[in-house]
């Protein structure tokens, strides 16, 4: 699975305005929104990868061309990685 990207210090610092402490809340909100958008991009990219569970596909399929987003096992693994199961 593709690694989920965490914003770098440089990316974080562009949202912080340490010269104006009153803007910390706004900066934190922007930071969280940016991290959310990056996480969504990562999940979409992950879902477009080919599923590694081809051995579990019924024998009447001649090839495995399903994507991770279409595989219940891949979703289960992703949930486990996120600590949700």
Description:
The structure is a single chain. 4% of the residues are buried. The two termini are 17 Å apart. The protein has 3 helices and no strands. The protein is elongated and about 60 Å long. It has 85 residues and is mostly helical. The mean pLDDT is 77. It has helices at residues 9-13, 24-47, 72-81. The protein is 46% helix and 0% strand.
Please name the defining characteristics of this protein.
85 residues; mainly alpha; 0% strand; elongated; single chain
Give the helix/strand layout.
Blueprint: H1 9-13, H2 24-47, H3 72-81
Binned, the helix content reads: 40-55%
Tell me, rounded to a whole number, the average pLDDT.
77
Shape: elongated
Which stretches are poorly predicted, pLDDT < 50 over at least 5 residues?
none
SSE run: HHH
How large is the count of helical segments?
A: 3
Tell me the structural class: mainly alpha
Strand content: under 5%
Give a short account of the largest sheet. Answer: none
Separation of the first and last Cα atoms = 17 Å
Number of strands: 0
Radius of gyration: 19 Å
Outline of this structure?
The chain has helices spanning 9-13, 24-47, 72-81. It has 85 residues and is mainly α.
């Amino acid at each position: 699975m593709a690694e989920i990207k965490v914003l770098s210090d440089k990316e974080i610092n562009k949202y912080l305005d340490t010269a104006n402490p009153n803007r910390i809340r706004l900066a934190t909100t922007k930071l969280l929104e940016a991290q959310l958008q990056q996480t969504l991009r990562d999940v979409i990219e992950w879902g477009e990868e080919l599923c590694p569970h081809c051995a579990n596909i019924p024998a009447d399929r001649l090839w495995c061309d399903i994507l991770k987003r279409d595989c219940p096992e891949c979703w289960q693994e992703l949930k486990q990685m996120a600590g949700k199961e």
